[in-house]
Design brief:
Blueprint: E1 2-3, H1 29-32, H2 36-47, E2 53-59, H3 71-74, E3 80-85, H4 92-105, E4 111-114, H5 121-137, E5 143-149, H6 155-163, E6 181-186, E7 189-193, H7 205-213, H8 224-237, H9 253-264, H10 275-287, E8 294-295, E9 309-310
Parallel strand pairs: 1-4, 2-3, 2-5, 3-4, 5-7
Antiparallel strand pairs: 6-7, 8-9
Helix pairs in contact: 7-8, 8-9, 8-10, 9-10
Length: 312
């Protein structure tokens, strides 16, 4: 397993708690992305003969939930470089443990790197590792790599940084990349950008809620109030609630959401809290890192695995 930074590329510098009641239950993944998964799997199979390397971008805040469990088999023996994106929003100590865990458990010939969204050293390191892994399989230049990942994990941002220009469309909505495109990253590296893929089948509610909280699932996957209540449960368990929400004796997520609505001025006529507006604002704040650098998953071999983790 190749790592960045010595063979370990440290750049930028399991499972969370269950969901809160209310809102609708998780539906089959195919109902969130109709036809997208089958289409992308077909694209991967059709284009694999053109590449010698697969780059999978996952969200550093939830690496387990945002990686495709069958990608290695789908890659057909090609090396897989896992890039943990949006690392600037995750707890750096937890991300470091994820890099170590993936380094120990991934097959020989694969790689792992961390991407915080910036330019310069970290991008050069990722490009260098991609070339190293690709040439180990096929020495001839250029190295052609397929880039895949769930929607909204930072895949297009990584591609644009590697290419040094706005080559791939970016956005904060799932599914911005609509079709495949070849891009030159320079120095003998070419990238094939494919649309986002999603874990097939039915996802457990805690996993689906993590994906919804990170903006990976479309907004209609869950009611926004349910996602906000899930976030408040995580923040409360991690002792990361904003000071203005900690006044008084209320500790239940629903009461905290009502207080958040009052603090933010999200009220209806008559002074009643507008919970839907407040929930949308809270989820947006979480996604943008306004509650601090916060990881939703620990590596499976961490002590106390299954608890949400955080950083200051």
């Amino acid at each position: 397993m190749a790592l960045l930074a010595g063979k370990m590329a440290w750049l930028s510098g399991a499972a969370g708690a269950g969901g809160t009641g209310g809102g609708r239950r998780a539906a089959a993944a195919s109902t969130w992305f109709p036809g997208e998964m089958a289409k992308t799997r077909r694209l991967i199979r059709e284009n694999l003969p053109l590449v010698g390397l697969v780059i999978e971008v996952a969200d550093a805040r939830a690496p387990q939930a945002t990686r495709h469990p069958g990608l290695k088999d789908l890659a057909g023996g090609r090396p897989v470089l896992t890039v943990l994106g949006k690392a600037d929003l995750a707890d750096p100590s937890v991300t470091r443990r994820w890099v170590e865990f993936l380094g120990r458990t991934s097959p020989s010939g694969d790689g792992v790197a961390v991407f915080s969204g910036g330019r310069g050293r970290e991008v050069r390191a990722i490009a260098g590792l991609a070339r190293e892994l690709g040439r180990a399989r096929s020495p001839r230049a250029p190295v052609r790599a397929m880039v895949v990942g769930l929607p909204n994990v930072g895949k297009s941002t990584l591609i644009n940084r590697l290419c040094g220009r706005a080559s791939a469309r970016t956005g904060d909505r799932p599914g911005v990349t609509r079709g495949k495109q070849w891009l030159r990253a320079g120095d003998g590296l070419e990238l094939l950008d494919l649309p986002g893929i999603l874990v097939p089948g039915r996802l457990p509610d805690p996993v689906a809620l993590r994906l919804a909280l990170l903006g990976i699932l479309p907004d209609h996957a869950f009611e926004v109030t349910r996602v906000a209540l899930f976030a408040l449960d995580l923040l409360a368990e991690a002792h990361r609630l904003p000071a203005e929400l900690c006044r008084g004796e209320e500790s239940a997520a629903f009461g905290l959401l009502e207080r958040f609505a009052e603090v933010r001025g999200h009220v209806r006529s008559g002074g009643r809290p507008d919970l839907e507006r407040a929930a949308a604002a809270l989820v947006r704040d979480f996604r943008e890192g306004r509650f601090g650098r916060f990881s939703l998953e620990r590596p499976p071999d961490d002590a106390g695995r299954g608890a949400p983790v955080h950083a200051g």
